[in-house]
Amino acid sequence: MSEEGLVSVPSRCSMAETMQRLLAALKKRDMTVFARIDHAANATAVGMELRPTEVVLFGNPKGGTVLMEDRQIAGIDLPLKVLVWEDADGKVWLTYNAADWIAARAGLGEKSAGAIAAMTKALPAIAEEATK
Q1: Contact 122, 58 (CB under 8 A)
Q2: Run of H or E including 105
Q3: 3-27 burial: b if 16+ Cβ within 10 Å, else e
Q4: Domains of the chain
Q5: In the chain, what is the straight-line distance between the N-terminal and C-terminal CA atoms, in Å?
Q6: Whether this model's pTM surpasses 0.70
Q7: Which of 32, 41, 47, 95 is least enclosed by beta carbons within 10 angstroms?
Q8: pLDDT tens sequence across 13-69
Q9: DSSP code for 98
Q10: How far apart are alpha carbons 5 and 105 in whole angstroms?
Q11: Which of 94, 82, 81 is nearest to 12 (CA)?
């Protein structure tokens, strides 16, 4: 599944296992988890229903700072985010913003090339570890 700037990867695991595997993959890479937002729980809290949907905000301040030093507006897409969600058929997905899309959106230049290359390599690897 693909929409502009988004990469969605199907998971062979349950929602809980996908999330557990995602957090382990981030920890393995010494990524900081800044927040975990359970949209379904928040919906329930206001009397509404939503299929399982969670966002994890994570990153490495050294890498993110390089992007913002290049163009401070890159901060709108930082920290990085991964959405783990369940579709209407019960299938679990992991979705993230593609690194090249983040770079294009912020107009990042050569100063950010190394950090973008690292993100381009890391994000699919993290997704694969979480979903396979």
Answers
A1: no
A2: helix 99-106
A3: eeeebebebebebeebbebbbebbe
A4: 2-131 (3.30.310.70)
A5: 16
A6: yes
A7: 47
A8: 999 999 999 999 999 999 999 999 999 999 999 999 999 999 999 999 999 999 999
A9: -
A10: 9
A11: 94
